[in-house]
Specification:
two-stranded antiparallel sheet; 6 strands; Immunoglobulin-like; mainly beta; 103 residues; four-stranded antiparallel beta sheet
């Protein structure tokens, strides 16, 4: 098994589908089938309402991901989840070319 970088992107919009900037989000994961969420870290939405977090996970594996917003004076708490994401290991291929001589 090896580690692999995984980029998790969340977009936050209001109910009129307008992007919301400055929203602090918490990114979490768990191994699919587990009940325990592991916090990866936090990120804040930009002017487009997008926040991104890059995680390092052990692969191959199947994971669930969650992004939480705790709420503030303007918006209620919210979250989104995606389940059973299969992340595969990568391969490296090396080619060696050896010129030969003609007899």
């Amino acid at each position: 098994m090896a580690n692999r970088y995984v980029t998790i992107t969340a977009q936050v919009t209001d109910y009129d589908n307008n992007p919301v900037s400055g929203i602090g989000l918490t990114f979490s994961y768990r191994v699919s089938g587990s009940t325990t969420w592991n916090t990866l870290g936090t990120a804040t939405t930009d002017a487009s309402g997008v926040a991104t977090y890059v995680a390092t996970l052990l692969v191959p594996g199947t994971y669930d991901f969650r992004v939480d917003f705790a709420g503030n004076s303007d918006y209620e708490p919210a979250y989104a989840e995606v389940s059973n994401v299969r992340i595969k290991a990568m391969l490296r291929i090396t080619i060696t070319v050896t010129p030969g001589s003609m007899a």
